[in-house]
Amino acid sequence: MSWSFSAIGSPKAIQQAFERSKQRYTGTSREEMEKAQPAITQLLELNFGMNRVMRLDASGHAYIPEPGAAFCSVVVTLQDIGTLVVEEPGDLQAVP
Q: Cβ neighbours of residue 90 under 8 Å, at least 6 residues apart?
């Protein structure tokens, strides 16, 4: 089974979107995504408080030939795009 997720936004917004995106999956795919979520959350939380735009690309797949045996792979890329998130006009005052 496999899953994939890609988003651009603030670290907190990406984390929320990742949580919502799990609803698209069922069975083993959803289970694989849920198992990868704690590591992805930790990576995103390292960037909380940063008013920056990030890009997260994550995907995973598993082959389960029999119960108790599995071959799994997860690929995660977290990139700082180098852009400020501006939600209010006053946010621009923070630009150095």
A: none
